[in-house]
Amino acid sequence: MIPTPYLLYLGHSSDAIGIKTSRGLAIFRPEICVGEFRHDDCPLTLGLPRLTIAEGAAAGARTLVLGIANSGGTMGADLVEDALAALDAGMNVAAGLHQRLRDEPRLAARAAELGLQLFDVRDPPADLKVGNGYARAGHRLLTVGTDCSVGKMYATLALTRGLQARGVTADFRATGQTGILIAGGGVPVDAVVADFISGAIEALAPARNDDGWDLIEGQGSLFHPSFAGVSTGLLHGAQPEAIVLCHDPARTAMRGIPGRALPDLAECLDLNLHMARLTSPHVRAVGVCLNTSTFDAAEARALCARTEDRLGLPCTDPIAFGVDPILDELLCLESSARSTIASH
User: Fold this and answer.
1) How far apart are CA 160 and CA 275, in angstroms?
2) 129 in a domain, yes or no?
3) Are 144 and 268 within one domain?
4) Where is the D-glutamate N-acetyltransferase-like C-terminal domain (predicted)?
5) Does 99 lie in the same domain as 160?
6) Which of 50, 116, 119, 144 has most Cβ atoms within 10 angstroms of its Cβ?
7) Which pTM value belongs to this model?
8) What is the tens place of the pLDDT at every residue in 82-102?
9) What are 105-135's pLDDT values in tens digits?
């Protein structure tokens, strides 16, 4: 386990999406975050106390979380210097970047010298097996998206907590660096060798017979040329009986690919259902989650209503408006499935 509490790193970041790991921790685990560290040229904030490295250590932070992401997941020289400063101040360092902390010689040497730890969150388990697609017991929901970074983790967490609030046993299954830090475990699916992706998700959400739900955090998009492979493996390994489509209506192009349009929602939904049926023949869509953070409340509600009318599915912003309409649809689906089984 990574020692808490955390000091959350923003560094020199100017991309609001790029700090999603730090932001996710600030939103979903604020009780273990003492503050944020950012340089003067960083225009972003998480709304936490702004602390220097030394102040963070004095406030009790045991780990600096490098909660940022960039194309390729690499560490710049400034980030390495900040991580060294954290080690010198007595903090461990955690990161979910593709470039491993342990592979930076200065960090590895300083951590060993000071008796501190480097946590590479994107290390997949070593004993993964290939998927087999055999039917397994249990209820599973997977979030899918029109693009990467459109709110799949937020939606999955909100749905998990919503079910728990209704007295339903539910577990969040993390598949990305942010989710893993929030949940305390999971599989960093984009770091898994392609042949083992579906098997990794079968292991992450194995058969269960307690009538509870596994809610699996989606990654990427079937329509994103860079990440469609990960999304496909997730669909097949999850064997979901339900999917929820996530979308950012303010997005004008695929993240990282300027000029490439996002898919139509109905088209995206249809393809995800079609692909999921390889291992889950009876999969159903139960709702749509929109990220309406750039819209005012009236515009956001109107957009959700239009989307609901067009797709015939409950639509909401899980952060602004909650997830009750989707949970109603999900539990109605479960009840209907039970009735069908009983009638046979």
Assistant:
1) 24
2) no
3) yes
4) 130-327
5) no
6) 144
7) 0.88
8) 999 999 999 999 998 888 999
9) 999 999 999 999 999 998 888 889 999 999 9
Asked whether the CA dihedral 216, 198, 341, 308 is positive or negative, the reply is positive
Residue 311 structure tokens: 């797709």
Q: In whole angstroms, how large is the CA radius of gyration of the chain?
A: 20
Go through the chain and tell me how many residues it has. 344
Q: Kindly state the tokens that stand for 343.
A: 């009638």
Report how far residue 137's alpha carbon sits from residue 161's, in angstroms, rounded to the nearest whole number: 22
Domain boundary at 90, 120, 150, which?
Answer: 120
Better-predicted residue by pLDDT, 18 or 197:
197
Enumerate helices (H) and strands (E) in the chain, giving the number of each: 11, 11
Place of tokens 């600030």: 26
Decide: 1 and 184 in contact? Cβ < 8 Å.
yes
- Identify whether residues 52 and 165 lie together within a single domain: no
Identify the helix (H) or strand (E) that includes residue 302: helix 297-311
Same domain assignment for residues 87 and 169: no
Residues 58-63 have a mean pLDDT of 97
Question: 17 by DSSP, 3-state: which?
Answer: helix
| CA pair distance 60, 196, nearest whole angstrom | 39
Of 120, 150, 169, the last residue of a domain is 120
